[in-house]
């Protein structure tokens, strides 16, 4: 059993509690993305609906904070989602623990074939296929911007972690082949799941380097 609150000061997120060892280890985050759905209308150019924290050295865990102040830490190494509410005030970040769930990771899309084409400068189309005989089961349109390091990440792809990482690795190899490196960030991502739903888009509002640790 552990205490339901933890705090962050000066970019360090500290857990003041009795911790069950199977729940928390140390999580480090070095980049923060602020994103919004492409169809969101706002007069505020800095408006975003989701904050994403990542570790560029370990893609197997990340945090999503939504505009409802719900916070989710996805840990694919442990097969666990940890839920919080953001109760931050003043200069202190306060997350209230609300629960956790375990899951078994599987590939959400069978992506035996990954087709990547540069349709215009810094604009790429990616399609995945279950087999050569079948239609594409996922289509992505990506707009890139040069960055200080590899910051490639599929915002809000909603396909777990195996499928996005498989596609990202193929995309990185394509960029290295074409450009000599993969030091880019995605500024716009359109997703077509080819299942009858409308195409959905996400835009990057802002990103920044951080040094945040959960202990």
From TrEMBL:
Span of the signal peptide: 1-25
Top-rank taxon, per record: Bacteria
Assigned keywords, A-Z: Signal
Record-given protein name: GLPGLI family protein
Organism per entry: Chryseobacterium scophthalmum
């Amino acid at each position: 059993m552990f205490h339901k609150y933890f705090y962050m000061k000066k970019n360090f997120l500290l857990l003041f509690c009795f911790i069950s060892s199977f729940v928390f280890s140390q999580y480090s985050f070095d980049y923060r993305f602020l994103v919004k759905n492409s169809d969101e209308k706002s007069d505020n150019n800095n408006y975003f609906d989701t904050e994403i924290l990542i570790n560029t050295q370990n893609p197997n865990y990340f945090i999503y904070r939504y505009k409802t102040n719900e916070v989710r830490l996805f840990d694919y190494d442990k097969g666990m989602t940890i839920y919080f509410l953001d109760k931050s005030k003043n200069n202190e970040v306060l997350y209230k623990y609300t629960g956790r769930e375990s899951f078994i990771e599987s590939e959400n899309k069978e992506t035996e074939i990954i087709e990547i084409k540069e349709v215009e400068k810094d604009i790429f189309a990616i399609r995945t296929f279950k087999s050569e005989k079948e239609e594409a089961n996922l289509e992505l349109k990506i707009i890139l911007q040069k960055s200080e390091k590899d910051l490639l990440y599929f915002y809000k792809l909603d396909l777990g972690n195996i499928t996005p990482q498989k596609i990202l690795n193929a995309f990185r190899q394509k960029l290295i082949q074409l450009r000599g490196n993969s030091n880019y960030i995605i500024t716009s991502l359109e997703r077509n799941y080819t299942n009858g739903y409308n195409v959905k888009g996400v835009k990057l509002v802002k990103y920044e380097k951080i040094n945040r640790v959960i202990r």
